[in-house]
Amino acid sequence: MQGLKRALAYGLAAAALGAAPAFAHAFLIKSNPPVGSTVNAAPKLLLLTYTENLEIPFCTVAVTDSMGMDDAAGKPQAVPGHPDEMQVPLNISMPGKILVSWHALSVDTHKTQGTFSFTVSKL
Ligand SMILES: [Cu+2]
């Protein structure tokens, strides 16, 4: 009961401040390949999991390889049964550090973005 009261108090405080609740935005939970990882083969697919369901047609992912080429990523695609995920076909032609820059639109119409990298040690 105490916890519920506290939650209500926080909710009212957030509403009073006019703040959009941060938990309603699509933030990246995890990636496969994982954020900061090193993989020993070029992945054919990047899988991104978010805190909210996504409007896939309005999400973009750019992937830049170690030579600065940024044409390695295809269009984000829905993952059947997982509206909080998107998958991106990859065509990585160089080993090295891969920079991922994503823009997401969640179903509540809030935009988020972020970058991370992983490393492909060999193709
Ligand atoms: Cu939101």
Describe the fold and architecture.
It is a single chain. With 123 residues, this protein is mostly beta strands. It contains one helix and eight strands; from the N terminus they run H-E-E-E-E-E-E-E-E. It has one helix at residues 2-17, and strands at 28-32, 38-39, 45-50, 60-64, 77-79, 82-89, 96-105, 111-120. Strands 1-3-6-5 form a four-stranded antiparallel sheet, with no helix packed on it. Strands 2-8-7-4 form a four-stranded mixed sheet, with no helix packed on it. The longest helix is centred in the N-terminal third of the chain and has 16 residues, at 2-17. The termini are far apart. The model is unreliable at 7-18 (pLDDT under 50). Copper (II) ion is lined by residues 20, 24-25, 106, 108, 110. Copper (II) ion binds at residues 20, 24-25, 106, 108, 110.
Task: Walk me through the topology.
Blueprint: H1 2-17, E1 28-32, E2 38-39, E3 45-50, E4 60-64, E5 77-79, E6 82-89, E7 96-105, E8 111-120
Parallel strand pairs: 2-8
Antiparallel strand pairs: 1-3, 3-6, 4-7, 5-6, 7-8
